[in-house]
Amino acid sequence: MRAKAFLFLAVILITGGLRAEEPVNIPSSKENFHLFLLMGQSNMSGGVGLAAGDTKPVPSVMKMRYAKEGEEPKWAPGAHPLHPRRPNKKARFGPGLSFAEAYLADKPGVTVGLIPMAWGGRSIAQLSKGSEIYGDAIRHTKAAIQSGTLKGVLWHQGESDTVEQTRSDAYENRLHRLIEDVREDLGNPQLPFIAGNLAEFYGTGKDHKAPDRVTRITKIKEILRRLPEKVPHTGFVESNGCSPAARAKVHFDRKSCLLMGKRYAKVYADLFAQP
């Protein structure tokens, strides 16, 4: 009986039914703990499944676990999956850890803390101030900055706002307002905000290639591309050369997630290299 009980517990631990507390080493200095809030929909949270080794922590990277209202968010080692997949969705691979690794390449002694708050399939209205998802993002970030320094926001979203004309028409104003709200609610009017473009292949799949849909996709892409011209302290990440994860041609594949993460880091670095 004891052997069976031990085997049952081992199976639960292996399959993730129970989760032991992983050891974390939070930097003693806020200046050495660089925080990034990850927002958007599925191409930020990840649209492709995990592979062997993805759950292995990345050195000098931590992630903030999702906590319900009234609970204290906790830090854990930085490993996939990053984002809370609610409700009951499979764990996915996204660009967050690739960004963190590239960001750390020239920053010895720094630890990155990722605050993953993206949620697949949501429009910008569903991610904006007043929504539960937005509230969660601000709540977790405020908890994170008790021990670190917020360095920026990474945003990848827009696919859901190509569904109908009213959404794409309102997108630019909603994006600019979301940036303003995030900066105001987190007390930093110059908080860097880096937006990634929709995939080049989005709009070529059989479910999204109707001419009116393609027109709306093109419009959202242009709004994202022109963001740095219109809103200070923002950056834009191009998606050229990326490939799709499936026939639907919506999500980036694994190698493209890795590439986009590196591009986010490059755009962020270039933003601070500007006079």
Overview of the structural elements:
It is built from 9 helices and 9 strands. The chain is globular and about 55 Å long. Mean pLDDT is 90; it is low at 1-20. The chain has one domain (22-273): SGNH hydrolase (Rossmann fold), CATH 3.40.50. α6 (165-185) links the parallel β7 and β8 (193-196). It is an alpha/beta fold. The strands form 2 sheets. It has a 7-stranded mixed sheet with strand order 4-3-6-1-7-8-9, with helices on both faces. It starts with a helix and ends with a helix.
List its traits.
disordered N terminus, alpha/beta, 275 residues, Rossmann fold, 9 helices, 7-stranded mixed beta sheet
Quick synopsis:
By secondary structure, the protein is α/β, with parallel strands linked by helices. It is built from nine helices and nine strands.
Topology:
Blueprint (H helix, E strand, L loop, with lengths): L1 H14 L17 E8 L1 H4 L2 E2 L11 E4 L10 E3 L14 E2 L2 H9 L6 E6 L7 H4 L4 H13 L4 E8 L8 H21 L7 E4 L14 H15 L1 H4 L3 E4 L16 H20 L2
Parallel strand pairs: 1-6, 1-7, 3-6, 7-8, 8-9
Antiparallel strand pairs: 2-5, 3-4
Helix pairs in contact: 3-9, 6-7
Largest sheet: 7 strands, mixed
* Number of distinct helices: 9
How far do the termini sit from each other? 70 Å
Mean pLDDT: 90
Q: Specify the CATH architecture.
A: 3-Layer(aba) Sandwich
Rg (CA only): 19 Å
Given as residue ranges, the uncertain stretches (5+ residues, pLDDT < 50) are 1-20
What do we call the CATH topology? Rossmann fold
Class per helix and strand makeup: alpha/beta
Number of domains: 1
The helix fraction, in percent, is 25-40%
